[in-house]
């Protein structure tokens, strides 16, 4: 498969609960971080689809935008939604505060630790890194300001139709980094009775948790997962928090060193009650 295809994953969600989410980021040379989340949630027939975008600058300032996007529809090899689209090599979106268009040139094909990552009968948790590392160029619109951006990008996909109270997660550590010509991502999942982990580095997946050297990290996002703007589930929020054991997420960004080359990393920790 040509690297530049970077296909999007499709999952048939089962039952009364289904969450499908794409995470897209861009790490720039100066430490600027752009994160775009595109999510679709179905709970007991209620459907929500939202997009959030966050631009975190090295000086600590942040620009955020969020929008309802209607249904996420298949279109050719990508997806379309109100105000934008997600293609194998491009993402475009609109919000009142932060809009943009990014073009990705992947360096490696998609990868995963295993697929599905977790299963319970016919229900499953899938997590696939569709773009482990890419050269990115694009343009952002911040109010009346236009900003050209370049850097290294990443995209992953999560699909979950496990019932929230049946998800056996206790703790999750994830991160991704680049430095020079190198790139890596890593994951460690503490389950009820075991640990699932893996590390991808320059095209190779290994069954160990082996992140690169990371310097002091600064927190860019912190809060309960049920409260994230990308979900925005209204009255169901408190119910979902109880049923899913109220996971709490902390996301950080900081310096990284890969094979002696300096760069940047973004990582997160999620803890369940």
Structure write-up:
- The protein is mainly β.
- It has one helix at 236-243, and strands spanning 17-27, 33-43, 46-56, 62-68, 73-75, 78-81, 84-87, 90-93, 99-106, 118-120, 123-142, 145-160, 169-179, 182-191, 195-201, 204-206, 213-224, 248-258, 261-271.
- Strands 1, 2, 3, 4, 5, 6, 7, 8, 9, 10, 11 and 12 form a twelve-stranded antiparallel β-sheet that branches. It has a seven-stranded antiparallel β-sheet with strand order 16-15-14-13-19-18-17, with no helix packed on it.
- A hairpin with a 2-residue loop joins strand 15 (195-201) and strand 16.
- The longest helix has 8 residues, at 236-243.
- The radius of gyration is 18 Å and the shape is globular.
- The mean pLDDT is 89.
Offer a quick outline of the entry.
By secondary structure, the chain is mainly β. Helices cover 3% and strands 61% of the residues.
């Amino acid at each position: 498969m040509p690297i530049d295809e970077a296909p999007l994953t499709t999952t048939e969600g089962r039952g009364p609960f289904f969450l499908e989410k794409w995470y897209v980021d861009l790490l720039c040379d100066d430490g600027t971080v752009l994160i775009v989340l595109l999510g679709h949630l179905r709970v007991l027939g209620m459907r929500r689809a939202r997009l959030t975008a966050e631009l975190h600058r090295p000086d600590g300032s942040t620009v955020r935008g969020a929008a309802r996007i209607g249904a996420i529809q298949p279109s050719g090899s990508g997806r379309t939604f109100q105000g934008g689209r997600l293609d194998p090599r491009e993402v475009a979106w609109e919000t009142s505060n932060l809009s943009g268009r990014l073009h990705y040139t992947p360096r490696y094909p998609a990868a995963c630790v295993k697929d599905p990552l977790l299963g319970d009968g016919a229900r499953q948790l899938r997590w696939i890194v569709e773009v482990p590392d890419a050269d990115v160029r694009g343009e952002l619109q911040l109010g009346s300001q236009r900003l050209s951006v370049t850097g290294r990008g990443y995209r992953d996909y999560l699909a979950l139709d496990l019932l929230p109270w049946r998800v056996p997660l206790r703790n999750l550590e994830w991160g991704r980094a680049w430095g020079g010509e190198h790139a890596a991502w890593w994951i460690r999942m503490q389950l009820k009775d075991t640990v699932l982990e893996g590390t991808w580095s320059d095209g190779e997946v290994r069954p160990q948790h082996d992140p690169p050297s990371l310097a002091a990290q600064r927190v860019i996002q912190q809060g309960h997962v049920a409260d994230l703007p990308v979900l925005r589930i209204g009255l169901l929020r408190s119910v979902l928090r109880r049923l899913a054991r109220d996971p709490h997420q902390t996301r950080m960004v900081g310096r990284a060193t890969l094979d002696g080359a300096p760069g940047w990393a973004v990582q997160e920790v999620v803890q369940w009650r």
